[in-house]
């Protein structure tokens, strides 16, 4: 079967579309694992949890329009989405904060499965420094800049207490990190060339509690 050509990306991809791309990639991977070679926009949208119109609009930013009566080539579209997400080459990640959450994140198999290599662990606790977690030695926080430079990490996962998160983030940025996944319950200040994604578990639970309370009030 003839593949559709890869069209050069000419338009900036909106942030909302970027936020949905991982869902499309996950859906395509599930379809591929199930043996699907082709998929329709309706089937792929249902798998990703969006409307077919939204899916088609989002994929148009990647230059992918499918073929009328045929649909999308699953393998080719998966490659397009992965390239758009910057996953055509391995991304090296450093994890700072190897407490309970950090320990669990270090053992997360999804990093490698999705094109990320966890290359270094860093912590401030003398009782943790020098131990081996998920096959990696834990370095002291005083060596953070050197660890980033020698490991080639460009992305950091921050699982430190909020009180030290900004200081650690500043060191990471100075060492060349350009992306931070922040689990610390605080807002980080970074230069314009650095991206921060915040994962605040407590806030998400509070939002769920709000909706639960509202449903209970409506049903009263």
From TrEMBL:
Record-level Gene Ontology MF annotations: DNA binding; DNA-binding transcription factor activity
Q: Where in the cell is it found?
A: Cytoplasm
Q: Where does NAD(+) bind?
A: 97-102
Where the record annotates domain CoA-binding, the positions are 86-187
SMART domains in the cross-refs: CoA_binding
InterPro entries named among the record's database cross-references: CoA-bd, NAD(P)-bd_dom_sf, Rex_actinobacterial-type, Rex_DNA-bd_C_dom, Tscrpt_rep_Rex, WH-like_DNA-bd_sf, WH_DNA-bd_sf
One Pfam assignment = CoA_binding
Q: Which GO terms describe its cellular component?
A: cytoplasm
What keywords are annotated for this sequence in UniProt?
Answer: Cytoplasm, DNA-binding, NAD, Repressor, Transcription, Transcription regulation
List the stretches of this chain annotated as a DNA-binding region.
23-62
Principal localization reads: cytoplasm
Q: How does it assemble?
A: Homodimer.
Q: What does this protein do?
A: Modulates transcription in response to changes in cellular NADH/NAD(+) redox state.
Q: Which family does it belong to?
A: Belongs to the transcriptional regulatory Rex family.
Any idea what this protein is called?
A: Redox-sensing transcriptional repressor Rex
Identify the taxonomic lineage of the organism of origin: Bacteria, Bacillati, Actinomycetota, Actinomycetes, Micrococcales
- The coding gene here is rex
């Amino acid at each position: 079967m003839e593949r559709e050509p890869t069209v050069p990306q000419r338009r900036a991809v909106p942030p909302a579309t970027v936020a949905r791309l991982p869902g499309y990639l996950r859906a395509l991977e599930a379809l591929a694992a199930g043996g699907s070679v082709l998929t329709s926009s309706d089937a792929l949208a249902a798998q990703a949890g969006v409307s077919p119109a939204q899916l088609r609009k989002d994929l148009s930013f990647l230059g992918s329009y499918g073929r009328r009566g045929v649909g999308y080539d699953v393998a080719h579209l998966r490659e397009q989405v992965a390239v758009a997400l910057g996953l055509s080459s391995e991304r090296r990640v450093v994890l700072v904060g190897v407490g309970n959450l950090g320990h669990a994140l270090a053992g997360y198999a999804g990093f490698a499965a999705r094109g990320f290599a966890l290359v270094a662990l860093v912590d401030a606790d003398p009782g943790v420094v020098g131990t081996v977690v998920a096959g990696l030695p834990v370095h002291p926080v005083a060596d953070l800049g050197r660890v980033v430079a020698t490991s080639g990490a460009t992305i950091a996962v921050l699982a430190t207490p909020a009180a030290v998160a900004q200081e650690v983030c500043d060191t990471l940025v100075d060492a060349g990190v350009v992306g931070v996944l922040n689990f610390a319950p605080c807002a980080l200040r970074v230069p314009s060339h650095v991206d921060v994604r915040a994962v605040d578990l407590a806030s998400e639970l509070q939002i769920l509690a709000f909706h639960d309370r509202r449903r209970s009030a409506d049903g009263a």
